[in-house]
Amino acid sequence: MKKIFLLSALLMVFSAANSFAQNQDKEPSMEEIAERHTKDLVKKLGLTDSQEFYVDSILTTNYVGMKDALDDLRRSGMQDPENYRYVNLQWQQKTMDAMKKVLDEQQYIGYLRYIGKGKDYKKGKDGKWYLKSELKKQNKSPQ
């Protein structure tokens, strides 16, 4: 059971590496993974050039930081998966906080959905993201 938690904590960092590594002889670096995620976000969120620069910087810094922190835990002999999960969640929160400063509200919601945290949001008829509870209220109110 503990191994399952450990694997899920490391899954976020290494999932992109594994899919990319299937076509490569060497595993991509965290910088390469951050670059790939940035390109995905540029397409999905319609980032400006300056936003792209900041997003790339945020992802590169935080992915490298998280990998270093997880490597430190592993080198120290830490085996409790909760520690790995805690470190993963800390870095994920740092990334979300930084992204919130760079992206507008709609882009940020799109980012949350990209990382699997925006399940409370749904697109309205106007193409914008809304909390599901707000959409229900809008649909019930007469116009």
Strand and helix map with partners:
Layout: H1 2-21, H2 30-45, H3 49-75, H4 81-102, H5 105-114, E1 121-123, E2 129-131, H6 132-140
Antiparallel strand pairs: 1-2
Helix pairs in contact: 1-4, 2-3, 3-4
Feature tags:
4% strand; 73% helix; 143 residues; two-stranded antiparallel ribbon
Please, could you describe this protein's structure?
With 143 residues, the chain is mainly α. It has six helices and two strands, in the order αααααββα. The chain has a two-stranded antiparallel ribbon. It is globular and about 60 Å long. The relative contact order is 0.11. Mean pLDDT is 84; it is low at 1-9.
SS element count, helices: 6
SS-derived structural category: mainly alpha
Shape: globular
Percentage of residues assigned to helices: over 70%
Low-pLDDT segments:
1-9
What is the ordering of alpha helices and beta strands?
Answer: HHHHHEEH
* Sheet having the most strands: 2 strands, antiparallel
Mean pLDDT: 84
Task: For the largest sheet, list the strands in their spatial order.
Answer: 1-2
Task: Count every beta strand, where a strand is a DSSP E run of 2 or more residues.
Answer: 2
**Beginning-to-end CA distance, first to last residue:** 52 Å
- The percent range for strand residues is under 5%
Radius of gyration, whole Å: 18 Å
